[in-house]
Design goal:
Helix content is 16%, strand content 41%. It contains three helices and eleven strands; from the N terminus they run ββββββββααβββα. A hairpin with a 2-residue loop joins strand 1 and strand 2.
């Protein structure tokens, strides 16, 4: 992340945030999305909050335009009337401090980093997994039509979002002669396709800077 470049000037225009899709049930809970007003325009971000077993609040923030994903937050304070949290590991101690609306669904305040201050607004919305489930409405019919169009005997599909299974179902048949249906537990002979899956999976930590293609495997697995 390169937050310092965001705070060279102040920007006080209105902020547009995503529509509200759900209401926070507790002060420290939910998926929030919003924007910081920066000189180049609204900088979108989203934050996820949750409570630990001892009641303390924790969370992480993602800022797509900055290439930041699930960066841990420090000193998270979520109250019924106010909110405060700091982004971990970023110079200038970037801190959000704001007040909550009467219904608890919107927070407006000031983002500070170093000597600069920028207005921000964020609103509670549907969690990514819930949004995905909504987006998958009608997916069953689409898959069934694709099976017919591509003359596929059967297949199974699993979709996860943030570690939550949002779709898991078999379509068509696992045994054409016996007319046995495909299920989420059906095993398929996919041959060398697993090599492509493995390479794709390795690409994620490469993008995150946790892995390098040209470094010997023994560096990561001694």
């Amino acid at each position: 992340m390169n937050f310092p470049r965001l705070t060279k000037a102040l920007f006080a225009s209105a902020v547009t945030v995503s529509p509200l899709a759900a209401q926070a049930t507790t002060p420290c809970a939910g998926h929030w999305s919003g924007s910081i007003s920066v000189p180049t325009g609204p900088l979108a971000f989203d934050v996820d909050f949750a409570s630990q077993a001892d009641g303390r609040c924790f969370g992480d923030i993602s800022i797509p335009q900055q290439g930041a994903k699930d960066v841990p937050l420090l000193n998270v304070l979520m109250r019924a009337d106010s909110t405060r949290f700091t982004i971990s590991g970023v110079p200038g101690t970037p801190t959000f401090a704001g007040v909550r609306s009467a219904d608890g669904r919107t927070i407006t305040g000031v983002f500070r980093q170093g000597a600069a201050s920028l207005p921000f607004t964020m609103s509670v919305g549907a969690a990514p997994a819930d949004a995905a489930r909504t987006a998958l409405a009608g997916f069953d019919a689409w898959v069934d039509s694709a099976i017919v169009a591509w003359k596929v005997v059967g297949l199974s599909i699993g979709i996860t979002v943030d570690g939550q299974t949002v779709y898991l179902k078999g379509h068509g048949l696992r045994d054409l002669e016996k007319r046995l249906p495909a299920t989420p537990q059906t095993l398929y002979a996919i041959g060398s396709s697993s090599k492509a899956f493995t390479t794709f999976a390795m690409g994620a930590p490469v993008d995150q800077g946790k892995l390098q293609w040209d470094v010997p495997v023994r560096t990561y697995l001694p």
